[in-house]
Write a structure and sequence with these properties.
CATH class: Alpha Beta
Number of domains: 1
CATH topology: Thiol Ester Dehydrase, Chain A
Distance between the termini: 10 Å
Strand content: 35-45%
Number of helices: 3
Helix content: 10-25%
Number of strands: 6
Structural class: alpha+beta
Shape: elongated
Length: 140
């Protein structure tokens, strides 16, 4: 797995549900924010992806809720890539309070879509390596 990248997020009041907990769908937003932040840090912008005629796609996402998050909680959202031999890759993410308490663990399976053929590219790690100014952020 690549070295874990992390971004800070503060839970906002409007993201909470009637019980005062962070709404379950917002965990996905936090995970997506961390993934796009990692792409940006590696030098891969949306414009660069479009110019390369590829785009990341989510194929499966699993969230394990461990502890509640409330408005004002400060968390770090991690993001690490695991590369295999096929057309897909895994992304491991953790949402952790500043005191180290794990609030959620997110595992995603992704791929890289060829925007013209509308099919997954055969070796996404190679494409990420070509597109990235900092491929080491992906463990490449």
């Amino acid at each position: 797995m690549s070295e874990t990248y992390s971004v800070p997020v503060t839970v906002r009041g409007y993201e909470t549900d009637v019980q005062g907990h962070l709404n379950q769908s917002v965990y996905l937003n936090y995970a997506e924010h961390a993934r796009w932040s990692l792409l940006d840090a590696a030098g891969i912008t949306q414009a660069r992806l479009i110019a390369g005629r590829v785009g990341p796609v989510a194929l499966e996402t699993t969230i394990r809720y461990r502890r509640e998050l409330l408005a004002g909680d400060e968390v770090d959202v991690t993001c690490g890539f695991e590369w295999g031999e096929g057309k897909t890759f895994r992304i491991q993410q953790t949402i952790r309070r500043k005191d180290g308490t794990v609030a959620a663990e997110i595992t995603a399976v992704g791929g890289l879509l060829d925007l013209e053929k509308r099919r997954l590219v055969a070796h996404p790690a190679e494409v990420f390596k070509e597109l990235a100014a900092e491929p080491a952020l992906f463990g490449l």
